[in-house]
Amino acid sequence: MSQYDFDLFTLGAGSGGVSASRRAGSYGARVAICEDNRIGGTCVHRGCVPKKLLVYGAHFRYDLEDAAGYGWSLSEPGFDWKKLQAAKDKELERLDGVYRRLLRDAGVQLVEGRGRLVDAHTVEVEGKRYTAGRILVATGSHPFRPEVPGIQHAITSDEALNLKELPRRIAIVGGGYIGVELAGLFNALGSKVVMVIRGDTVLRGFDDDIRSMLTQEMRKKGIDLRPETFIRDIEKRADGTLSLLTRMGDTLEVDVVLYATGRVPNTKGLGLAEVGVRLDERGAVVVDEGSRTDVESIYAVGDVTDRINLTPVAIAEGRAVAETLFHDNPTKVDHTGVASAVFSMPPVGTVGCTELEARERHGKVDVYVSNFRPMKHTLTGRDERTMMKVIVQRDSDRVLGFHMVGEDAPEIIQGLAVALKCGVTKKQLDTTVGIHPTAAEEFVTMRDKRSDPVEAAARELGHDAMQN
Ligand code: NDP
After folding, report:
1. Per the domain annotation, does 454 fall within a domain?
2. In this structure, are 286 and 423 located in the same domain?
């Protein structure tokens, strides 16, 4: 009999914590997990799931408009935000139950309450102490709010998905994943959206063509995008209106201001540093390739480690820990070639290097770009375009990146992520027969390389030299 109450004690029942605990439980480990909120974490209750449901709901605005081009005549459609909220909340309630059942079926004991480390093998929850051979920290992250006077009047994505009323006017600060997704959502539902970003285009870190294309498409849909804009302060008027003063002296008047300015790991108050777990300068838990912290018995997965902050990555990290510790199957997660999607309107899907990264890391590259009006919109008349981009290493012919903006991009890129992981070459794409008529077939029919900017500049110089 082990000297500990449990083989594994997990702090946080989000994507990473639940996956590790269930997997460990399925291998016969004695597992407990603590949580002071609903089961499922940010993804299920404050992120991916409610967001995607609301995005589906919002997209009907465009579907209903587009139906006219196909012969449908509809009376003026009405939309009820409260009904959509209620339907979404009911589904989240169901998922909380599903997660509880999944834990129970795997033999995992749920301890309700907030956990704190006491030592390398002890966790305290609501005054009660539990010992465990291994401890897993999977406490996630929370939205970051910069220090701006009046920031207490701002909401974050935590509240945005649960607003009682649909805002008539909303300002969204930050042009990352969350900012663009929520801007598209509220704009489609009829709110007047002003988006305030520090740079020129949204989605820093994505391929530049994707960034400019999405920025353009968002503007076409009516989002008032203010580049290179910084909020100096936020003031609440007596009538509830929020007045945002920019550093350039402009005033923006809105009903809701939403900050989507990144997330920070949940490491405060957990007793981590006290037991010897090292944190980096952003407060994230430092782990090795196997998700082990500086303390041999303590592991950490998911957003709290600030590696790639995506649900499927946290799940993979959690499962790898369980495989390693409880199935004699040492497993490391490959953090390269992780695909991701942004559920903006239109959505983005991406996997592999951006063009800039490819040029910096892989020498000469060939770039194929296709920018077209999707077939569906030939009849709807909607001015929305799709863009696809393939980046290929010239010497090896290996594809380094696939990127897309346009309807179904996340669904299409998921398949291509498998191909990228398998080392697909451009020649193999060329010999793949497409499915017609689809947008995705474009990825296997691209023939024309985009002119290489460096070579074009060199040719230009050579031409000038000849003339001189
Ligand atoms: P991101 O890091 O994606 O974007 C943050 C944005 O806020 C950037 O535009 C950034 O500008 C801006 N910003 C940062 N600090 C300030 C500041 N002090 N003042 C003004 N602007 C600022 O964070 P998000 O909050 O959008 O999302 C957090 C994470 O959640 C994502 O990185 C992703 O990992 C995950 N996520 C994934 C989703 C998906 O997979 N579909 C959906 C939602 C979230 P700049 O670019 O100039 O730095």
Report:
1. no
2. no
Q: Could you tell me the residue range of the domain that residue 445 belongs to?
A: 346-449
Q: Does residue 174 have its Cβ closer than 6 Å to ligand 1?
A: yes
Say whether both 237 and 269 belong to one domain. no
Q: Which residues contact 88 (CB under 8 A, 6 or more apart)?
A: 50, 53, 54, 57, 161
Q: Are residues 75 and 104 in the same domain?
A: yes
Q: Whose CA is nearest to atom 22 of ligand 1?
A: 261
Q: The whole model's pTM is what? A: 0.96
Which CATH number fits the domain that encloses residue 374?
Answer: 3.30.390.30
CA 176 / ligand 1 centre spacing (Å): 4
Q: Measuring from atom 36 of ligand 1, which residue has the nearest CA?
A: 177
**Is residue 407, in this structure, part of any structural domain at all?**
yes
Cβ–Cβ under 8 Å, residues 267 and 184: no
- How many structural domains are present in the chain? 3
- Ligand 1 pocket, mutate which of 42, 45, 178, 414 (most atoms under 8 A from CB): 178
Contact in structure between 305 and 285 (CB atoms under 8 Å): yes
pLDDT tens digits, one per residue of 124-147: 999 999 999 999 999 999 999 999
385-416 residue pLDDT tens: 999 999 999 999 999 999 999 999 999 999 99
Placement of tokens 């639940």 in the chain: 18
Angle at alpha carbon of residue 26, lines to 24 and 28, rounded to 5°: 75
User: Do 385 and 431 belong together in one domain?
Assistant: yes
Q: How far is the CA of 38 from the centre of ligand 1 (A)?
A: 24
| Ligand 1 neighbour 46 (Cβ under 6 A) | no
Q: Write the residue with the smallest CA distance to atom 14 of ligand 1.
A: 261
Number of residues in the chain: 468
Say yes or no: 126 and 186 in one domain: no
Same domain, 170 and 134: no
CATH number at residue 285: 3.50.50.60
What pLDDT is recorded for position 133?
98
8 contact partners, CB below 8 Å, separation of at least 6: 20, 21, 24, 29, 30, 31, 32, 132, 133, 134, 135, 136, 322, 325, 326
- Residue 142 annotated among the catalytic residues of the structure: no
Is 354 within the bounds of a domain? yes
**CB neighbourhood size of 58 (10 A):** 19
Is residue 468 a part of any domain in this protein? no
For the segment 321-348, the average pLDDT, to the nearest whole number, is 98
Catalytic residue of the set 153, 327, 362, 436: 436
